[in-house]
Design brief:
Elements lengths: L4 H14 L3 E4 L4 H14 L3 E2 L9 E3 L13 E3 L12 E2 L2 H12 L7 E9 L8 E7 L2 H10 L1 E2 L1 H7 L6 E6 L9 E5 L4 E5 L4 H4 L2 H17 L2 E3 L1 E7 L5 E7 L6 H5 L11 E6 L3 E5 L5 E4 L4 E5 L9 H6 L5 E3 L2 E3 L4 E2 L10 E3 L5 E3 L12 E5 L16 E9 L9 E3 L3 H9 L2 E3 L11 E3 L12 H14 L5 E5 L19 H11 L6 E2 L4 E2 L14 H7 L4 H16 L7 H15 L1
Parallel strand pairs: 1-6, 3-19, 4-5, 4-10, 7-9, 9-11, 14-25, 25-29
Antiparallel strand pairs: 2-3, 6-7, 6-8, 10-11, 12-16, 13-14, 13-15, 16-17, 17-25, 18-24, 19-24, 20-21, 20-22, 22-23, 26-29, 27-28, 30-31
Bound molecules: oxalic acid and manganese (II) ion (MN).
């Protein structure tokens, strides 16, 4: 398949290490994909779904101990511990290769190794990177075929001498104690063992497109961010692009595919990406972005005709569902799809489930893997090798009280501070307690492949290179009233906030200056057609100085963990905020 000696030599070594019975190159063809689907269905690894209602769709159930990303088993393996920084687990490359190398020994005996060459990003784009994933899981191959550009196209991109990210995955026996997701940024290598769950094993996604890419981006002068990219078209047909970072399972997919409220005639949201953005400065001084992925690995629960019809329609064919419930007619169901589950289904663990059961039918982190090109609102530029120009960058978290509905940073460095101090209540996308507030800078806490202090410094440096800087904003769709109800309707109505953001970018609307940034005047958020009282809107747009003073301590404590790696610009911003709050 290739003459690239770097690929062949490495493959040889990995074959010697893992000792598969057979090595199969994935070429990206439909015939090969069909054959693999049949094989996976024959072994029970996948279940073919109703071919009329969900053509080309399959269900997969992971092991019950293997349902989310395992951050405590995820390591950055740099020569110096300091280079991994305080937010990552660290292991030295020597120890990691030795310890986990032993686990790989003979791990593919009796199994087949699939060689999956893939591109992250459109072919022939300066943004794109190639990887080769070796895996013994057909589920992984079939997911990679949706999430990335696989096969001959990728080998052409690597050429006879090109470099690539070396990705090795073995399912082994899913032993939790021997589960490792290792990144070797200095060697452009990823090792994953003993997991079969998406984020841990589709190595192009979090491992390459965020952890390794963030490291490459720092060295090569670009950025890899946990951001959706959307184009907002106004009635004049002008499209402005926004990228937005939210922690896992906080609605990036929904925002990326938003359907405008009925009052917004002539407006349209186009999806470029729902999870990851790679950003570069171009000659025009602007930041341009591509979505490195080719599919969506979205959270199923909560996705419905009401919350995200575009996502739902994307998943109607050629989609792999993971850990959702199976209906008797061989279609699928999850909590929040509708209020009307069937009387009998098979739950995500493979057990009978009856209506009224206390147990969830689908796992809270159950997923769909669907081709982006099937999305009804996919942007015509989603595969443009040049990317799309970004007008605004948005940060957001799940905060019950602190953050207002929206505010704008004073300038780039202040925007970096706003991103760096983001916090959110945790969700089911990673193992661990749900609902605990944690600092999640730029929604990248689990995904920065190097020292987070250096990552902040990289953001500051990028600001100097971007002459036409996007404006930076913070949003919070999740503010609660005293009874614990959401105050803002969210979903399609979030367009009302995006409209203000774009108007700010175009200099079309004033704002009030507060201690934390520029906030909208209530009159400038269009609430026509909304059942939202004036009091509620005012409340959503207030900054409670006392709560924010409390926030300062948390920020100081967090910043202290970076020691002298914290850029001075960010401590200056913190001092500035403190002064403004005390004024
Ligand atoms: C994801 C995540 O799967 O952030 O996108 O966990
Ligand atoms: Mn994500």
């Amino acid at each position: 398949m290739t003459k690239n000696q770097k690929v062949l030599t490495w493959l040889d070594e990995m074959v010697k290490l893992t000792q598969p019975d057979e090595v199969i190159w994935i070429d990206g063809s439909d015939e090969q994909k069909k054959a693999l689907e049949n094989e996976a269905c024959a072994t029970g690894e996948m279940i073919a779904l109703n071919s009329e209602k969900l053509p080309g769709c399959f269900l997969h159930r992971t092991a019950t101990n293997d349902v989310a990303r395992v951050e405590n088993k995820t390591f950055i393996c740099t020569t110096k511990e300091e280079d991994a920084g305080p937010s990552n687990n660290w292991m030295s490359p020597a120890e990691a290769y030795d310890k986990v190398g032993k686990l790989y020994e003979g791990s593919m005996k009796g199994r087949k190794m699939y060689v999956v060459p893939f591109i992250m990003g459109p072919a022939k784009s300066e943004f794109s990177k190639v990887g080769v994933e070796l895996t013994d899981s057909i589920y992984v191959v079939l997911n990679m075929l949706i999430m990335t550009r696989v096969g001959k196209i990728a080998l052409e991109e690597i050429g006879d001498d090109g470099d690539f990210t070396k990705c090795l995955h073995a399912r082994k026996d899913l032993n939790d104690d021997e589960k490792y997701i290792l990144h070797f940024p200095e060697d452009n290598t990823i090792w994953s063992i003993n997991s079969g769950y998406g984020g841990n094993v589709l190595l192009g996604k979090k491992c390459l497109a965020l952890r390794i890419a963030s490291y490459l981006g720092k060295n090569e002068g670009w950025m890899a961010e946990h951001m959706l990219i959307l184009g907002l078209e106004n009635p004049k047909g002008e499209v402005k692009y926004i990228s937005a970072a939210f922690p896992s399972a906080c609605g990036k997919t929904n925002l990326a595919m938003l359907i405008p409220p009925t009052e917004y005639k002539g407006y349209k949201v186009w999806t470029v990406g729902d999870d990851i953005a790679w950003l570069r400065v171009k000659e025009d001084g602007r930041l341009w972005a591509v979505n490195p992925e080719a599919g969506f690995f979205g959270v199923a629960p909560g996705t419905s005709e009401k919350t995200n019809p575009n996502a739902l329609h994307t998943t109607m064919s050629n989609t792999i569902f993971t850990n959702v419930a199976l209906k008797d007619d061989k279609t699928v169901w999850w909590e929040g799809l509708d209020k009307n589950p069937d009387d009998h289904m098979i739950d995500w663990k493979g057990n009978d489930w009856y209506k009224g059961s206390e147990e969830k039918a689908a796992h809270p982190n159950s997923r769909f893997t669907a081709p982006a090109k099937q999305c009804p609102c996919i942007s015509k530029d989603w595969e443009n090798p040049e990317g799309v120009p970004i007008s605004a960058m948005v940060f957001g978290g799940r905060r019950a009280k602190t953050a207002p509905l929206v505010y704008q940073a004073f300038d780039w460095n202040h925007g970096v501070f706003v991103g760096a101090t983001m916090a959110s209540e945790t969700t089911a996308a990673a193992t661990g307690a749900v609902g605990v507030v944690r600092r999640d800078p730029m929604a990248m806490r689990p995904f920065v492949g190097y020292n987070m202090g250096d990552y902040f410094a990289h953001w500051i440096e990028m600001g100097k290179k971007v002459k036409n800087q996007p404006k930076i904003f913070h949003v919070n769709w999740f503010r609660l009233d005293d009874e614990g109800n959401f105050m803002w309707p969210g979903f399609g109505d979030n367009l009302r906030v995006l409209e203000w953001i774009i108007k700010r970018c175009d200099g079309e609307v004033d704002a009030k200056e507060t201690a934390i940034g520029y906030l909208p005047e209530a009159k400038d958020i269009n609430v026509n057609g909304l059942d939202l009282s004036e009091d509620t809107l005012n409340e959503l747009l207030t900054v409670d100085k006392e709560i924010w003073k409390g926030e300062l301590d948390g920020i100081k404590e967090f910043f202290a963990t970076f020691g002298d790696k914290l850029p001075k610009e960010l401590s200056d911003e913190l001092n500035g905020l403190e002064e403004r709050l005390n004024k």
